[in-house]
Amino acid sequence: MMARKLSTICKQNEFTEHESKLISTSIRKFSLNNNICVRRQNQ
Q1: What is the DSSP letter of 1?
Q2: Contact indicator for 15, 23 with CB cutoff of 8 Å
Q3: pTM over 0.90
Q4: Which residue, 18, 14, 19, is CA-closest to 6?
């Protein structure tokens, strides 16, 4: 019972390589934008 639950959770969390690349690039862009905003506020 427990193993089946875990496997379904894993399947839901699996991204294709393309999707994971998109996600990582969007996160990187977002953090870069945040850094720029923070720098502007600090000046």
Answers
A1: -
A2: yes
A3: no
A4: 14
Size of the chain in residues:
43
pLDDT per residue as tens digits for the range 1-43: 556 665 555 555 566 777 778 888 888 888 877 776 667 766 6
**Ramachandran sector of residue 23 (left: φ over 0; alpha: ψ -120 to 50; beta: rest):** alpha
> Which pLDDT does position 4 carry in this prediction?
62
Q: How far is CA 29 from the centre of its chain?
A: 11
CA 28 vs CA 11, 12, 18, 25, 43: distances in Å: 25, 23, 15, 5, 23
Tokens 């699996």 correspond to 14
